[in-house]
Design goal:
heterodimer; A: mainly alpha; 11 helices; B: alpha/beta; 6-stranded mixed sheet; 28% strand
Chain lengths: 246, 304
């Protein structure tokens, strides 16, 4: 993989104003809004998790999705416009291209995670030790990987016209079915079952682990890994057929 | 002899028995082509002649159904990886969210021995557009930026698929001026075009394609000679193909029942001889068809 290439790609991503607004600002804004709506400060869930911390983690998971999904989906634009053909006239291999897009997805997930956390720590009374912060941020970042792959799969499957709708619907679905908007505790039984297979749900669980005891870390890692594997295989197969046809 | 050609002795491009079909349609139907280092070759033909598919196979973007591609003795992909071949694709897009310099820089970052970005921009005559967003370029400017993308790997072979399509007359002239700078270094160029005059003016050699095949290949003068032929049709009672083939000015013979179609290099000569040899010949027609039709189609498109 090529660091300079990823750097220039990053510059393009940063320049995309819509990306900045939606993937960095929106989760932080919603976080502040929810804390106020629910009058969440000083409230604590039975498992000892402060409600503000929980809301912060929910919005961080929401935020970490949109960046990687948007950048991955841009592959569809590059496929449609012929830029990918241009890149095929360079030494970069097909897998190198996907790896570069993957690295880019991991990087663009960071600002959203960090901004929500910053707002939580500075303005919304989220009190964590340095070690807990490190654990939470690390867990959130690692949990980004399935969404990076999901973005790449969308980019390889969708058309340039359709990809925006697809990412919108998918991030809504993953949020809704993953307990980001409705907590698993109040969801009906069938929905709770669905939530427990979603990467969004386990991303939040994993990020909760450094804060309160009793989180099924092993299960969280396993489910997230399963998503990584399945999406990775889909991306690899799709990419092979896509380039073979060109 | 320049250093480049001395280094790259041998064959620049060798296409052997190339076939490619899309579904039932043969796009390229048996193309053989050898290009020597330093040649500037125009690939001429109407839309759908198979030019782009041939170029895609030459660049390793499309795998041929059968046949072989070598570029300076390597496979197409090896040549691309080595930075030996640079290409300007027909519908190659530019990035919407990057400047000209960034776009060229992205591609340069991927090559092993790229030119400095500023140098590639200068050679493509777009140095003044370096900080311009790619969305804010005219059609001709975009083409020149694509030219910079093709040049940035410092290639020995440049492949251009209809490079001047979006350019006005003046831009086109400037473009070919920049190309001269490249070819003066002894490097090889293959460009597809459907502008006949462009081929005449800039190519040492013209390869005319139609329906997936090479139908003429030679210097501009040679191809023009082929093209200036006519087809003579007539009912010739008692004729044999062998006898017709011996007539002066006849290049090819097609005979069905008594109906003969003679592709002629000189139809006047052929007609006189035909009437002497077969006095009962009747229903005579002399038409400009075949290759000339192809060229007429080509030149007609220029007027648009």
């Amino acid at each position: 993989m090529n660091a300079r290439f990823v750097g220039l790609e990053l510059l393009r991503a940063v320049r995309n104003a819509r990306y900045l607004i939606f993937s960095i600002m929106l989760p932080a804004v919603l976080f502040v809004l929810f804390v106020n709506i629910y009058d969440a400060k000083d409230q604590v869930f039975p498992n000892g998790l402060a409600v503000t911390t929980s809301l912060m983690l929910n919005m961080a998971v929401f935020g970490l999705m949109s960046g990687p999904l948007a950048t991955g989906a841009r592959i569809a634009v590059e496929r449609g416009s012929g830029w990918q053909r241009q890149l095929q006239l360079t030494p970069m291999s097909s897998s190198g291209y996907v790896l570069a897009k993957g690295a880019l997805g991991m990087v663009v997930a960071l600002p959203g995670i960090l901004l929500v956390s910053l707002v939580g720590g500075l303005f919304e009374d989220v009190r964590l030790s340095a070690l807990q912060w490190a654990g939470v941020l690390g867990a959130l970042w690692l949990a980004t990987l399935p969404f990076v792959l999901l973005g790449i799969v969308i980019g390889l499957l969708a058309t340039a016209d359709g990809m925006q709708a697809v990412t919108g619907v998918l991030s809504m679905l993953f949020g809704l079915l993953g307990g980001i908007w409705i907590p698993v505790e109040v969801a009906p039984g069938w929905l709770a079952d669905v939530m427990r297979v979603m990467p969004t749900y386990w991303a939040k669980e994993l990020a909760t682990a450094p804060v309160v005891p009793g989180v099924a870390v092993g299960q969280a890692v396993l489910v997230l890994l399963a998503w990584v594997l399945v999406l990775g295989v889909v991306a690899a197969r799709r990419f092979r057929t896509d380039t073979a046809r060109v | 002899m320049t250093q480049t050609t001395a280094l790259r002795a041998g064959t620049a491009v060798a296409l052997t028995g190339l076939h490619k079909r899309y579904g039932e349609v043969p796009a390229v139907d048996g193309v053989d082509l050898v290009i020597s280092p330093g040649e500037v070759v125009a690939l001429l033909g109407p839309n759908g002649a198979g030019k782009s598919t041939t170029i895609d196979m030459l660049l390793g973007l499309t795998t041929p159904d059968s046949g072989e591609v070598t570029v300076f003795g390597q496979t197409a992909r090896e040549a691309v990886v080595d930075g030996v071949v640079g290409a300007m694709l027909q519908n190659g897009s530019l990035l919407e969210d990057a400047t000209v310099a960034e776009t060229v820089g992205l591609v340069a970052a991927l090559h092993r021995r790229p030119l400095p970005v500023a140098e590639a921009l200068r050679r493509a005559d777009v140095a003044d557009l370096a900080n311009r967003r790619c969305t804010k370029l005219s059609g001709g400017q975009k083409q020149r930026v694509r030219f910079a993308l093709a040049l940035v790997c410092d290639p020995d072979l440049l492949v251009l698929d209809e490079p001047t399509v979006a350019m006005d007359v003046e831009t086109r002239r400037q473009f070919w001026h920049g190309m001269r700078e490249f070819t003066d270094l002894g490097r090889t160029v293959l460009f597809a075009t459907h502008y006949l005059h462009e081929a005449q003016e800039f190519a040492d050699r013209v390869v005319l394609m139609r329906a997936g095949r090479v139908v003429a290949d030679g210097s501009v003068a040679e191809v023009r000679a082929t093209v200036s032929g006519r087809t003579l049709r007539a009912v010739v009672p008692g004729a044999t193909a062998a006898a017709l083939r011996t007539l002066p000015g006849v290049r090819e013979v097609e005979l069905r029942a008594d109906r003969a179609a003679l592709a002629c290099t000189d139809s006047d000569l052929a007609l006189r001889a035909l009437l002497v040899a077969f006095p009962t010949t009747h229903d005579i027609e002399v038409n400009a068809v075949g290759l000339e039709d192809a060229f007429l189609a080509l030149t007609a498109e220029e007027d648009e």
